[in-house]
Structure formats: structure tokens, C-alpha cells
Amino acid sequence: MDDIALLDLAARLAWAATELILSIRARGFSTRQKNDRSPVTDADHAAEALIVAGLRAGAPLIPVVAEEEISGGHVPRPGRATWFVDPLDGTRDFAAGRDSFCVNIGLVRDAVPVLGVVAIPATAELFGGIVGVGAWKQDAAGRRPIRVRPRPAAGLTVLAGHRYADDPRLREYLRNKKVASVTHMGSAMKVCRVAEGVADLYPRFSRTMEWDTAAPQAVLEAAGGTLTLLDGTALRYGKPGWANSGFVVQGGT
Fold it and tell me: Taking 90 as the threshold, does the pLDDT of residue 33 lie above it?
């Protein structure tokens, strides 16, 4: 399969997972706590099972690193190319009845993201991209190309997670920047909003996992943006333990 076919496979599975997640949300679900004290729901497990089965059937030579399988002790050996799957990014928001949760399916090759899709079930949006080729957004209006925007003269539209509402690190990071607004929301949705050119900056100071970032980073970079560590160096994949340190997402200059 070439990258266009792999992206199409990921997109189909993300849409299918979206429908499954919304059906589980409608009928009700249980929430449990994992060993790391993060929440997990019936929707996380069902969506991951659907996605992982589809990836392994459609591209059997590419290993899959999936959040809930890792949590359950199934740790695959990464290949030169590896899928990274977060079946429900933003589980806390999902469990709390908020809409900022996503489905992330990204492909990493030689430790860097090369393509990915991010679905936002609550708004029926799907973002996809191949780095070096381009990015798109699909919703009720159809599919169209997306691109990061130049930094507005009026100031930056900044996105941040809910937990940073009163975080002094965010205030310090923004202290010498011209900021028009700061909005708090959950999940990889923030990266997609920068990718489509409706926001400009998203700093993250706490740990994430590689399955959180692979897909949205691919979409962002396909749209002309950047995701780097806070010191400006590249975020690499396949690290022991799969953990990322803080990073910053930026749109155009």
C-alpha cells in the first residue's frame, strides 16, 4: 500500500470508530480507572478493537502501538513504520459529557510522523494529511484542503488544555507575545484548529504519550505547521515507555 491508500484506510477506520463511540455515548457507558489513574471507558476499548483489527487486516506488515493494548501489557516491537492509535483522546472530557474528544490514527516512519487522521466525533469533523503532500478537513460541507495561517497582526489566538487555566507556566510562556485570546479545550482538537488556520499557538507543558501526538502532528505538519519540543528540537517516536515531554504547536510565521 502507498501512503494515499494507508491514509484512506486510517480515515475509514476513524469514521467507523466515531460512529461506534457516539452509539456507546448515547446508550450509556461505564468508566474505570487504569493503573496510572487515568480514566478508561467502554468506548475506548470498543473503538480500539475496531481500529486495531482494521489496521492489522488492511496493512498486516505494519505493527500497531495502541493505548489500551499497551495499558493491558501488549507491547509490540516497533518497525521502521508503525501505527500509533489513541482510540479516544480526551477520555476525561468524554466521560464528563463534554465534546472535545478525538480519534487519532497516525503512521510513524523512521521515528517521525508521515501521515495521520484525527476525527472529532461530536462535530462530525475528520482531518487528514500526508507530510509533504498536504492536509484536508472533511465535514458536512465536504472535503477541502487546509493550511495554517500567517500570524495575525492583531495577536495570536492561543489554545491550551483545561488544566492550564491558572497555570503560571502558561502566563510566563505568553508574557512577551502579542496575544489576542486564550481558549481552553481538550484533546488533539487543539492541534487541528491550528492546522486549519483558526488558531496560532498551542503550548503543552506536561507529559503526553506518542499515540496522543503522532496523528495530529502529521496533520499539522502536512498543513504547514510545526510541533517541536519546548526547546525547539524535534519530537521523535519509538522512545522507551512511549512518553513525550512538553511541546509547542505553531502555525504560520
Answer: no
